[in-house]
Amino acid sequence: MYNVYVLQSLKLNRRYVGLTNNLDRRIEEHNNGKNRSTKGFLPWKLIHFEKFENRIEARKREKYLKSGIGRAYLDKILKE
Description:
alpha+beta, 3 helices, three-stranded antiparallel β-sheet
């Protein structure tokens, strides 16, 4: 089982989209500064996630959510 997740920085108005097979561990890594691209924006909170059966489908969704139309989709669903 794979998860595509969206984190929100509590420090600045930034979001991060990622992919993992262990969501709890991955969020802990982000909040402990173990990811170079997110450690400058600590702390992070989980605001959205989706589950997938395989990595291929999860990767497709991650790439979509990182695209312009995917970011617009996230803006829309997260405001509701």
